[in-house]
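Subject: sequence -> structure tokens, single chain

Hey, anyone have a minute? Need the predicted structure for the following. Not urgent.
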Amino acid sequence: MKTVTTLGAVALLGSALIFSSPVFSKERETGRGTGPVVYVTSQGLYYDSIVVADPLPQKGSFQQLIPGEFGLATIATEFGPGEVGHLGGRWWIDLNDNGMQDDEDKFFLCPLLGPGRVMM
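Reply:
Had a minute. Here:
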């Protein structure tokens, strides 16, 4: 029971740290949305976003967001709106860096707001 309580506390702390970290707090120039700016690598475009549900239960399909430095964005993903592989804003972030979706990761709904834009 102690292990379950500890894991729950770690998951809650991870959620708080992710949304208060530089990954989600980079200043945006457009003023659109409440979520992070996301860079879509396959399109070479940046999208504003809005956080709709945080957290989501780990049920169904999720698209991975990768933290890093991507110009206007501090997170990126492979597929964006209009592409096969884009899941409409159902994201996961690999908090324990094991390459698998599990209970220690972050799952949330954060749709991308089009149109995408190039970095200026």
